[in-house]
Amino acid sequence: QSSPATPPTAALSASPASADSALYRSLGEKAGISRLMDDFVNRLAADPRLSEAFRESNLPHLKEQLTEQICQVAGGPCVYQGVDMRTAHEDMNIRRAQFNALVEDLQAAMDAQGIAFRVQNQLLARLAPMHREIIAR
Ligand code: HEM
Question: How far away, in angstroms, is 88 Cα from ligand 1 center?
Answer without folding.
Answer: 6
